[in-house]
Amino acid sequence: MTMQQEVGVSDFVLLDNLTTDTFIENLHLRYQHNKIYTYIGEVLVSVNPYKSLDIYGQQHMAQYRGREMFEVPPHVYAVADACQRVLRQQGRDTCVLISGESGSGKTEASKFIMKYIAANTMQVHREYIDRVKNVLIQSNSILETFGNAKTNRNDNSSRFGKYMDIHFDYKGDPIGGHISNYLLEKSRVVSLQPGERNFHAFYQLLSTNNPQTKKYGLNSSSVYKILGNERATAQDSKLYNVTKSAFNALGFPPAVVDDIWSIVAGVILLGELTFSEGASGEVVVGGPVSSCVSALGVSQESLRSAMVGRVLAAGGDLVSKEHTLTDAHYTRLALAKAAYDRLFSWIVQQINAAIEAPSASYRSSVIGVLDIYGFEIFDTNSFEQFCINYCNEKLQQLFIELVLKQEQEEYSREGITWTPVPYFNNRDICALVDAPHAGIIAIMDEACLNPTKISDGQLLEAMDKRLNSHKHYTSRQLSPLDKKLKHAVDFQITHYAGQVTYNITGFMEKNKDSLWQDLKRLLHRSSNASLAKMWPEGAVDIQQTSKRPPSAASLFRSSMAALVSGLSSKEPFYVRCVKPNPAQAAHLWDEQLVRHQVSYLGLVENVRVRRAGFASRQRYDRFLKRYKMLSQYTWPNFRGSSDKDAVMVLLRDLHITDVQFGHTKLFIRSARTLHELERARSELIPSIVVLLQKLWRGTLARQRYRRMKAALVIYNGWKRYRFRRYISELQAILSRHRNVIPSWPAAPRGVAVPLLQAAYRRWRAYLTLKPIPRDQWPQLKLKISAASVLKGRRAQWGASREWRGDYLAINSYNDKSSSYLSCVSSLQRSQSLGKPLFSCRVFKFNRYNKMSERCLLVTDTSLYKLDASSFKPLKKPTPITEVGGVRVMSGEAQLVVVVVPGARNDLVVGLVAPPHTDLLGELLGVLAHTYHRLTGSELPVEVESGASTRCILGGKTRALQLPPATTSPASPTATPAPFTHAHNVITYHPASARA
């Protein structure tokens, strides 16, 4: 990563010859070169440059993302990244404490931290996370509009305290937040010091682009009492657009935004009301009354009544009390302050509702960002400055307790060799303000509880009497020679940041912070829905008594105690802001002012403690748990007696020596050592994660396998059960239908029905074949082959008789059977004739229209034509595989046409059968069975139902018919030949016709 050349020393811990002078010189040198950030270990010192610097873009964020603080130049982004890294790696809540006086840049630092934290998130659920980030950032714009103002020391001074908790999920992505506000300076609403401006919201309301301005009769060029001599500027118009966008981003409805601006207008108009004494001595209300009641949503009569008098409950009766002119003015100002204060608190509540983490989400950890008022010393310091400076005292005490005091005490407690560093402890100053029964707040509360009216002067007298021996408190009565203090008006507290003179005027009234019930009822009944919700106590009946509310100082003290308690439970990170000059001008350096801030912030003492101290301290068990994977002697488990022994073995194996061993904790001196441990751990984590993933995935796979195996067992059991039920159903059908299944029922999925049907067919065949002798099965196969083509199509085909097959070998059929057998035997030896399957005498009709007597022999491969006398083969045999089909007649005629497509000459024969014997069925059975055996397919057989068919002789189609039933021989004594022809029509005369 390319970085600019460093100027001076970037970490004060590395500064040679540390003194206050060298500290300030280094700070000034870096400031001159726009190096506004410098480290004190992990504490960041920030100097306000009062100008824009190009060091906050996305490319700068990328330089600091995931980098250790010592690796990169000092920057507020480094603090934010370290804070977020602790949260993600260790799961610990963290906080960033931003301190410094007004105008030192605390608010800007908090915004940069918020911006970095919001941007440095993962890519999961990006749309939701972007919305949360946008809401968190936009909330700052609204809070600055209604809670910030220009003072003599800062153009954008926070006039309230703000602490924001940002909630993160287990992945480290922001899921929401919560804002706590402290003590808005509401007296600014009605009282401004010369040269200051009121809250930004008033001037944004009066900007030229705000539509609410003319709605209530306001004018940007007019003079208004509560705004002093200040006017709205073009910058206010730009800021109004920013505020408007922020309201939209946070989901404020337009009606609610209109309500908010109408309340701001109502506060301005309350400041314009006038009071005079009428002829009868009553108070008369003047000024823009109609515009005021329109803005506040109340009636003119109710507003006038609330301004000129009030109703009291005394002994169960209601008593009306008329106001004097002084009371009326007080009522007007009190109402304006209270209305604006409630408005601000209500806006914070609405922002919290918009940024609140979803209730169903898991909140893993929190980052707190504290941006609270800086230490203030004005020409006139009132109750608000007293509370603000008390807040800074408490935060300084927290810093001392966490960074200086507790660290040194811990070294002594743990038995670490240590040279104590002296420091200023402001515990006595905090006790001066908040000590029970003896502090200034306790004295003020006692005065407020007094049934008689106590004036501010009497309060000062009580403080002088009770605190006269305190070294940090004085007044003109206690120090008569101090002419700077006004008698019975001023008192002085020596704060850690210097002496501050407070004006006691208004302390009693501001501490009571009371508002008459009439005014609460007035605002509760407003037609402005948002304003009415801000005053729920206005619904309480006036005669109903309630407990006296706690004073403003007590509430503030309690909130500070809660804040300090919450911050103490988190891992703190510090940003110490320094104001370089009072004129808020770039490049101007006021050494005296800077020296004063360095002194009261305790920065030099902080450097000394950091130099002499240790960068990290951790309990042995936590350190071992985090880093034990770095050594083979401690991973995965150490087999020693204690965690301390394990840590010693671990560090000895890693050759780390810049440590000290306490009683319960390990102290690491160098931050670099800690970073090296983290780097080594980060390099090992992926392999450990892979190991854990492997083991866990193996466990999951085994569990999944067992579940799958159990499911398979259950499935197979269910399948067998369904199969048994199906078989039982088939058995029931067989028993009902005498071993026959007329129709197969629907089978369950997975049942091999074709196999069952095939088994059923084999079983049925077995039942059929069982009574038939085994030696008749070959003949039965031939009859089945013949039946498949002739049954139902030809009445007689020899099914009931015994099939002899080779009839020429039977002497009763062929008187030359011995010659035939001798010839066949000779052919089997010479020509591989094959086994004779069928033979008989035939009458053959050839392509020359001649009829001749022949013998037909069918072997297991071929079909032969034999001479009727010598039984020698005529021409080549016809392979059965070349037979294209057979045509026969459905009647008794034993005419057979064997189709031979390759020869283009069919074999047309009439079978000569023994008396009362049909050989056609036997011939077809032999041909069909042999053909299927040789080719695997069925032999095409045509059975003509009429008296004619066709054949091909000599390549021509010829008609083949039986003689008509009425036809008689030409001569009574002449016997017709088996075949006759005329006009290409061949007539076959069956043997019955020739008998």
Could you give a short account of the major beta sheet? 8 strands, mixed
* Total beta strands: 31
| Unreliable residue runs | none
Instruction: Give the terminus-to-terminus CA distance.
Output: 122 Å
Structural class: alpha+beta
Assess the beta-strand content as a share of residues: 15-25%
The gyration radius over C-alpha positions equals: 57 Å
Name the helicity range.
40-55%
Q: Indicate the overall shape.
A: elongated
The DSSP helix count reads: 30
Mean pLDDT: 85
The strand order across the widest sheet is: 23-22-21-20-26-25-24-27
Describe the structure.
- With 995 residues, this protein is of the alpha+beta class.
- Helices cover 43% and strands 16% of the residues.
- It has 30 helices and 31 strands.
- The strands form 8 sheets. Strands 23-22-21-20-26-25-24-27 form an 8-stranded mixed sheet. A 7-stranded mixed sheet has the order 1-2-16-3-12-6-7, with helices on both faces. Strands 28-29-31-30 form a 4-stranded mixed sheet, with no helix packed on it.
- α9 (254-270) packs antiparallel against α12 (325-355).
- It is elongated, with a radius of gyration of 57 Å.
- The model has no long low-confidence stretch (mean pLDDT 85).
